[in-house]
C-alpha cells in the first residue's frame, strides 16, 4: 500500500501541506469519497427514510439500510437488525445504561469497569451505581500499563451484572483482552459492553469471536462524518432493551393513551435520523475495507512503535504505557513543562496533538499520577517523517524550557 497515494485521497493534506496531524483519537480526517458522498446525498438523494412511498424516498431508504448491512458485515454480525444508528459512542453507551441497566440493576449488585475508561464509558455507570446502590469496581492496571487480568478474575463474580470495558485505551494505546474478559463475564452470568471507539478504527472486530452483548463506536474516529455512530446489540438482547427516546417512526400503532413499538431496529431510531451521516459512514467503511483492517492495524502499531522509540530517546521525556506498542497512540510528558505549553509549542510548528486528560481523568490522575499528558495519536495516513518532526520539535521544547529553567530560582524549577 502506497501511503503517498493514500494521502492524496484526503483533501485536507493538500490544503494544509505543512500540517502534521497527530490528533486522530480526537477525530480522523475524511477521504474525498466520504466528503463527496455527503454533498451527493444533499444534491441528489435528500429524502427522508422509512416514511414516503415515492420512488426516490424508497431508494434513499434502501441506501440507508444497505449501510446497516455493510456495518454488520464489518463487525462480523450475521444480523443487520443488531445494528442501531446513534450519534456516536457516547449516545450508544447511554442508550444501554438507560434502556437496559436502569431497570436491571439493584443494590448489592456490581458493575466492573477498568481504570482506563473514557468518561463516556464511566459516568453513565457512576450515576447508575449512585442511583441504584450497586457497586462500581475498577479493574486496575499492571505496572506496565496493561489491564490486570488476574485482578479482573478476582473481581468479576456472581454479583457482577455488567463489565463495561474499552477495547483500546485512548490514552495508553493498549489493547485489552476483550475475548478473555467477555468469557469471564459470561461465566458469571454478567453482560459485557465493549467500548470500541478506539478499537474499531484500528483493528478488525468480529462479534462472533468476541461475543460482546453490547458494543459502541463512532463514525468520526474512523473516517466518517461527525454525529453518527453505532450501537450493536446482541440479537438475543434486542427485545430486552427499552428505547428511551420516543417519537416518530419508532411505533407500530398509536392510540390516544398508548402505543406499540415498531420492530427492531426501527424502535431504537426515533425521529429523523442522521441520513447523510449514515451514507457518509458507509463510504468510510468502504474505504477501510479497501485498505483492509489487518493492514491498518499493523500500520498503526508500527508507527506507534516508531514514535515511542523516538520519544523515549529524548532526555526529560516520560512516555506512558508499555514499551511494546500495539496501536498508534503515544502519550507523554516533558518533565517540568506543562503539557499545554508543549502542545502550544508544537502548534507553532503546525504539529497538532492533544494536551489534557483525554476524557480519562481517573487514569491520568490516579495511575499516571499527573494532571495531564500530551497525546500524539497516529492513523494509517501518518508517516515516519511526521513522527520525526514531532520528536525534533519535542527535543527543541526540552532544550528551550531546560535552558529557561536554569535562570529560575531553584524552588521554581520543574
Ligand atoms: N470511548 C473512547 C475509548 C474514546 O476514545 C472516545 C472518543 N475519544 C469515546 C469513548 C467517545 O466517543 P464520542 O465522543 O465520539 O462519543
From TrEMBL:
Cofactors named for this entry: pyridoxal 5'-phosphate
UniProt family annotation: Belongs to the class-V pyridoxal-phosphate-dependent aminotransferase family. Csd subfamily.
EC class of the enzyme, as a word: transferase
SUPFAM superfamilies noted in UniProt: PLP-dependent transferases
EC number of the protein: 2.8.1.7
Keyword annotations from UniProtKB, A to Z: Pyridoxal phosphate, Transferase
InterPro entries: Aminotrans_V_dom (IPR000192), Cys_dSase_SufS (IPR010970), Cysteine_dSase (IPR016454), PyrdxlP-dep_Trfase (IPR015424), PyrdxlP-dep_Trfase_major (IPR015421), PyrdxlP-dep_Trfase_small (IPR015422)
GO biological process terms, semicolon-separated: cysteine metabolic process
GO-annotated molecular function: cysteine desulfurase activity; pyridoxal phosphate binding
Gene3D superfamilies in the cross-refs: Aspartate Aminotransferase, domain 1 (3.90.1150.10), Type I PLP-dependent aspartate aminotransferase-like (Major domain) (3.40.640.10)
Reaction equations catalysed: (sulfur carrier)-H + L-cysteine = (sulfur carrier)-SH + L-alanine
Record bears the keyword Transferase: yes
Pfam families: Aminotran_5
Sequence ranges assigned to domain Aminotransferase class V in this UniProt record: 20-390
Official protein name in the record: cysteine desulfurase
Amino acid at each position: 500500500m502506497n501511503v503517498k497515494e493514500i494521502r492524496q485521497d484526503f483533501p485536507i493534506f493538500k490544503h494544509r501541506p505543512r500540517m502534521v496531524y497527530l490528533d486522530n483519537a480526537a477525530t480522523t480526517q475524511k477521504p474525498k469519497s466520504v466528503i463527496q458522498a455527503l454533498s451527493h446525498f444533499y444534491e441528489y438523494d435528500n429524502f427522508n427514510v422509512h416514511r414516503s412511498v415515492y420512488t426516490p424516498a424508497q431508494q434513499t431508504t434502501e441506501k440507508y439500510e444497505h449501510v446497516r448491512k455493510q456495518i454488520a458485515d464489518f463487525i462480523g454480525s450475521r444480523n443487520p437488525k443488531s445494528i442501531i444508528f446513534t450519534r456516536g459512542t457516547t449516545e450508544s453507551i447511554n442508550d444501554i445504561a438507560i434502556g437496559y441497566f436502569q431497570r436491571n440493576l439493584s443494590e448489592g449488585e456490581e458493575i466492573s469497569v477498568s481504570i482506563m475508561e473514557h468518561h463516556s464509558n464511566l459516568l453513565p455507570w457512576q450515576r447508575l451505581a449512585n442511583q441504584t446502590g450497586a457497586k462500581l469496581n475498577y479493574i486496575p492496571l499492571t505496572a506496565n500499563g496493561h489491564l490486570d487480568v488476574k485482578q479482573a478474575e478476582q473481581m468479576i463474580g456472581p454479583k457482577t451484572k455488567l463489565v463495561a470495558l474499552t477495547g483500546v485505551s485512548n490514552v495508553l494505546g493498549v489493547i485489552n483482552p476483550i475475548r478473555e474478559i467477555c468469557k469471564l463475564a459470561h461465566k458469571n452470568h454478567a453482560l459485557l459492553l465493549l467500548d470500541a471507539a478506539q478499537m474499531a478504527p484500528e483493528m478488525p472486530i468480529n462479534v462472533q469471536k468476541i461475543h460482546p452483548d453490547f458494543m459502541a463506536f463512532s463514525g468520526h474516529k474512523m473516517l466518517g462524518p461527525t454525529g453518527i455512530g453505532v450501537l450493536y446489540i446482541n440479537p438475543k438482547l434486542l427485545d430486552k432493551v427499552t428505547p428511551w427516546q420516543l417519537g416518530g417512526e419508532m411505533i407500530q400503532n398509536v392510540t390516544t393513551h398508548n402505543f406499540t413499538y415498531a420492530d427492531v431496529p426501527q424502535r431504537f431510531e426515533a425521529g429523523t435520523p442522521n441520513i447523510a451521516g449514515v451514507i457518509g459512514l458507509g463510504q468510510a467503511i468502504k474505504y477501510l475495507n479497501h485498505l483492509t483492517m489487518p493492514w491498518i492495524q499493523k500500520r498503526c502499531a508500527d508507527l506507534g512503535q516508531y514514535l515511542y522509540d523516538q520519544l523515549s530517546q529524548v532526555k526529560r521525556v516520560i512516555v506512558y504505557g508499555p514499551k511494546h506498542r500495539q496501536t498508534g497512540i503515544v502519550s507523554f510528558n516533558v518533565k517540568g513543562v506543562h503539557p499545554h505549553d508543549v502542545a502550544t509549542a508544537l502548534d507553532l510548528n503546525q504539529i497538532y496533538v492533544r494536551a489534557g486528560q483525554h476524557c480519562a481523568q481517573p487514569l491520568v490522575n490516579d495511575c499516571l499520577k499527573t494532571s495531564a499528558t500530551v497525546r500524539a495519536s497516529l492513523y494509517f495516513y501518518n508517516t515516519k517523517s511526521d513522527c520525526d518532526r514531532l520528536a525534533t520539535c519535542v527535543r527543541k521544547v526540552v532544550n528551550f524550557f531546560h535552558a529557561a529553567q536554569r535562570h529560575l530560582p531553584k524552588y521554581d524549577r520543574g
